[in-house]
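[step 3/7] fold_predict: job queued, chain A
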Amino acid sequence: MSTVFSGFAEAFAEPVRQDMGRYFARAAGPGTGPWRIEEFGERSPGFGHDDLIACLQRLLTGQEADGAFTELSELMTRACVRNVPFPIVVHELAFLRDRLTRLAVEEGNLDAIGAIIVFFDELKDMLARIYLGSFLGALGHRNNVRLRHIAALAEKNLLVHFEKHLDWLKQLTQAVSARDGEAMPEAHHERCEFGKWLHGEGASLVRDQSHHAHLVDMHAAMHRVVDEIADMMGHQRDSLPLYALMKKAENYSLDIGNEIAMLNSMVIMTHYNKDPMTGGLTRRSLERVMINQLEISKATETPFCLLMCDVDHFKQINDNHGHTAGDRAIVRFADVLRGNLRQADLLFRFGGDEFLIMLPSTGYAQGLEVAGKLRSAVAGLRMETEHGNFEMRASFGLLEVSGSKTAFIDSELVNNLIKECDQRLYLAKHRGRNQVA
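[step 4/7] structure written:
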């Protein structure tokens, strides 16, 4: 049990303890919210306002304090596992502390005011240590999972550099867990293994200089966070800011993973066979690229989107204007699609006038925005032929895919995803065409 609470009975005179218990009974009664922690309790049974109040009441009254401390430790572990942000817990403690303090002030009970402040300061620090330990354990586990996924990749390409970054993050997590400043990884953002690649070979690989500059800035920002972590390692009562900084470092790491996944797609575009008419990747390479993208999505815990699209009433174009005009329409369609995509997006000619687009590191909302942009761009196309002019329209089927939600990545999964995306394209046509479904 924490030394803070093992000597709780001796720390405060009995009347003061009784006063704190009395204030607590009034402060934590019905209708004393808002207890924001409760909204998490509704989604995560076994964690909420009632659990926290029950533990604190037993600590304040000295009843079964050992058991209450154990339950409180378990409560913080559950909070971390269920992704309840620790600042929410801090808010709960501050709200309760302020209510108890106001009650003591109303009675002019100076001894109780001091006891309340000391109790909640120590309590916050203790819970922060427990939460940080749970968070670092969970972060270490997530990091190891990501490393295993990358190790299993059939083709790592640029992901080999992200793997080195994850090794660096693993070292950071272990150092902070042990509070061992000597075990901290390379601090300078240009001298770590990922930084050496980013400022060396990576600088020439990324053609878009603004993209490269963004990645450099992101990586440097993460290292500045680590500098703050290193400065704080030896300080007491550092658990809460350490948690915030490690959470920030992990978020930067995930963003870097997203960027590398997108750059990896650019490399794929240069290595695979392309359709001679449209310049898009061929259907023959689709399964291989899709499996690779699913593995990357699983390793980086980032979804991607698939877009299936084709030209509305394409048969009528061939029938009314000839197959040569139809071919020109397909080429123009592909050019417009490519001109409105990122360099990292992958365009496949699926067959005839039908194309499949892969949008790496893209969620559904962003994918819907891209699909809308493409639809609008195609809708403005006007083709002139010797048999008359025509305007083009296109329909799109959108599907978000998350590799982390798939147990097995194989040909059957690829076929099922393509089939589902194609069904969404059919739905767009069924609803009237020239739209996204």
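[step 5/7] annotate
Confidence is low (pLDDT under 50) at residues 6-10.
Residues 140 and 170 are 7 Å apart (CA to CA).
exit 0
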